[in-house]
Amino acid sequence: MTKTTAQPKRARQKPEKADLSSEAKSPVNADLTKDQHTKFYTDMVRIRRFEERSLRAYQQGKIAGFLHLYIGQESIAVGCVSLMDENDHIITAYRDHGHALAVGMGMDECMAELYGKATGCSKGKGGSMHYFDPSKRYWGGHGIVGGQTPLGAGLAYALKYKEIEGCALCFLGDGAINQGAFHESLNLAALWDLPVVYIVENNGYSMGTSQERSSAHPDAGIAARAEGYKMNWAHINGESIFDVREGVSAAMKLAKSDSKPSLLEIHTYRYQGHSIADANHKKYRTKEEIEDYRKNHDPVSLYRDYLIDAKLLDEEGVKEIDQAAKAEAEASAQFAEESPFPPEEDILKDVYWEEDNPDQKTSGGRIFFND
Amino acid sequence: MPEITYRQALKDAMIDELERDENVVIIGEEVAQYNGAYKVTEGLLKRFGPKRIVDAPISEAGFIGMGIGASMLGIRPVMELMFWSFAYVAWDQIINNAASVRYMSGGLINVPIVIRGPANGGTGVGATHSHTPENFIANTPGLKVVCPASPYDAKGLMKSAIRDNDPVYVMESTIMYNDKGEVPDDDYVVPIGQADVKREGSDLSLIAHGPSVLVCLEAANVLSSEHGIEAEVVDLRSIRPLDEETIINSVKKTNRAVLVEENKPFCGVGSQISHTIQSQAFDYLDAPIQRASALDAPAIYSPPLEKKQLPKADVVIKKALEIC
Ligand SMILES: Cc1ncc(C[n+]2csc(CCOP(=O)(O)OP(=O)(O)O)c2C)c(N)n1
Ligand SMILES: [Mg+2]
User: Fold this and answer.
1) Structural domain range at position A106
2) Considering the domain boundaries, does residue A4 fall inside one?
3) Of A333, B121, B203, B225, which is most buried, counting CB atoms within 10 Å of its CB?
4) What residues of A are in contact with residue B34 (Cβ under 8 Å)?
5) What integer pLDDT is reported at residue B120 of this predicted model?
6) ipTM above 0.90, yes or no
7) CATH number for position A31
8) pLDDT below 50 — which residues of chain A?
9) Structural domains counted in chain A
């Protein structure tokens, strides 16, 4: 983790190559048990295999609309969620499958949601961009760029109001930082000392627009905008789950003990197009760039290599984890396939709380206007 | 006459106007280097260069408001919203500033801006991405809103919109971008505020706009072949201004009306048209006016249910048979 006020550099200049074996020794990482490592690694692999399977399902025409894949960014969701306790909450944008699996939502319900089935996490009502599971303190899955950022401040506000020592992790993309609502949220968070951690997953592009083409003053990077609000900020190298954990845990601590917000920028990369419909994704960036990230900066491979070097896992173990993840993903596709679609009358359910709880109706008059 | 797609027709209109008027600029997300999220602006950067075709960051309130300000000084910005669903983050600019500046300045200022992009459901993108806000726009004096449903109308209305001295919001449809139709090469316009009878009929008027026009044409064919009912299909094309005359003439001829739209029923476009008909052609009605709108809930994702939520031909036929 580096703080770059003194020597600003271009944001999409790659951070120095991560050194997992030394980062593993930092205080938040040093005491991780073998089981914990295995769980984190397994979760990263599960996300990747789940999404690869969903990509196939999309290509088979089982999934409608958009499918934004998280492949390449897995260390961020898993690293961040690994730090959450029962008072911490999470909210993100439409690239939301990784965060969902990381908080413990099942592959079955996640895949079924993509298929639009009644067994999906949102009963088939939300789709890929709109996963939710409040029981896991996972507040979505939001389709409008930047739309979740005031909500993140709101989760933090509620925690503070209720005097709960927890924080809200609010994820967004490098393109979303240019939404007005985000700037307003930063100001509110700083002004009112809200325990929210804004985590920009900087994968270099918003659709086909590189960060240099969308954001003023790219040299300072994204997180430095926090200076304008006198807010804590840091740059983190997403290829290393250890760097993610170290940087984010410091910000969470600040949120929880001092009720102070942070703005973190995590350098990462998406291998797939913006969504599966993005046929241009090899035009606005080079094949070499994609290959370089896959080969040299892949968070899953780097973690695996570290675990093998450190004798926390052997080749056999790696293979088992991978096969189990593939089998689980395959089974989830089967589950989704066999699940029923929601019944037609579900279209009109879940619109109003009082309509779904008629014994506690609070208003009179007509509320739906279907003839 | 050449057959071109709806998408190409929109682009041809923009090319004509970019060539005709040096103050026309195109601004939006991914419109230039990426060639448009839906390829409506494909090739324009190459042809007109980066001064005229401008990629914007994801800052709709900022760049649309900027377009409104620039239009006050005589620029004619054509702003693309990747989806009209994203208009809501810029609502103050779109509804408040664009619509009120002329009024509040006592007519000293005008705002010749165009905002365009797709506004339709039915593509599996869920509640946040499936909005059809033409009814909100039409509810706002100072704004104009058009919804072309054919390649011919797309070109003609887009050209009118760009030449208009007031804000004109053009609602397109991702579902229609690939539809082909005959479009003249020449410099024609479709005047804003003129409906079009897309199919003549004597027994019933189906009144619609946007993708619902295609649904009505499909329903009309079935009504004719299976039920011997000849439906007239009135394509509003423009919601505000509204061509009341064409609506009333059609109803006077057929004495029955079904109003079809993808909007939700409450305060949808059909509510206003229903009022227009009952107040101007009450004595001509032989049956209550029927409406077919989207089922009254946020847009559901689940693909087979989404199809049920939007008024398709089967619903229109059912409504028609109830009054014929
Ligand atoms: C208000 C709004 N404008 C535009 C879009 C269309 N859109 C969806 S994602 C996206 C790019 C966002 O990029 P970034 O924030 O970097 O996130 P990433 O996709 O890289 O995860 C755009 C333009 C939208 N969903 N909402
Ligand atoms: Mg991005």
Assistant:
1) 20-370
2) no
3) B121
4) 207-209, 280, 284
5) 96
6) yes
7) 3.40.50.970
8) 4-9, 11
9) 1
Percent of chain B with pLDDT over 70: 100
Residues with a CB atom less than 6 Å from ligand 1:
A 95, 143-145, 173-176, 203, 205-207, 274; B 29, 58, 60, 82, 86, 89
Cβ contact A8:A265 at 8 Å: no
Distance CA A333, CA A339 (A): 10
Ligand 2 midpoint to CA A202 (Å):
5
Strands, E assignment, chain A: 89-91, 168-173, 196-202, 205-206, 209-210, 232-237, 262-267
- When pLDDT is averaged across residues B79-94 and rounded to a whole number, the result is 98
- Write down the pLDDT at residue A218: 78
Interface A-B: count of C-beta contacts within 8 A: 137
Tell me if B189 is assigned to some domain.
no
B167 and B58 in one domain? Answer: yes
Q: Which residue lies with its CA nearest to atom 13 of ligand 1?
A: A206
Give the distance, in angstroms, between the CA of residue A188 and the centroid of all CA atoms in the same chain. 23
Q: How far is the C-alpha of B99 from the C-alpha of B97, rounded, in Å?
A: 6
| Residue A7 pLDDT | 41
In tens, the pLDDT along B181-221 reads 999 999 999 999 999 999 999 999 999 999 999 999 999 99
Residues with beta carbon < 5 A to ion ligand 2?
Answer: A 173-174, 203, 206
Q: Which ligand lies nearest the alpha carbon of A143?
A: 1
Whether B92 maps to a domain, the answer reads yes
With left for phi above 0 and alpha for psi between -120 and 50, is residue B109 left, alpha or beta? beta
In total, chain A counts a number of residues equal to: 371
| B174 and B241 belong to one structural domain | no
Mean pLDDT of B146-175: 98
Residues B203 and B303 in one domain: yes
Per the domain annotation, does B115 fall within a domain? yes
Task: Give the number of whichever ligand sits closest to the CA of residue A71.
Answer: 1
User: What is the extent of the structural domain holding B216?
Assistant: 196-323
Residues B178 and B214 in one domain: no
Residues B214 and B120 in one domain: no
The model carries a pTM of 0.96
Q: Any idea what the CATH number is for the domain that residue B263 is in?
A: 3.40.50.920
Average pLDDT over chain B, rounded to an integer: 98
A277, A210 contact by CB (below 8 A): no
pLDDT tens-place string over residues A275-314: 998 888 889 999 999 999 999 999 999 999 999 999 999 9
Q: Which of B182, B207, B242 is the last residue of a domain?
A: B182
Q: Whole-angstrom Cα distance, residue B50 to residue B41? A: 13
Residue located nearest, by CA, to atom 11 of ligand 1: A206
Domain edge (last residue) among B182, B206, B240: B182
Test mutation, B35, B175, B302, chain A, max A CBs within 10 A: B302
CA dihedral A111, A115, A120, A121 (to 10 degrees): 70
Atom of ligand 1 nearest to the CA of B29: 23
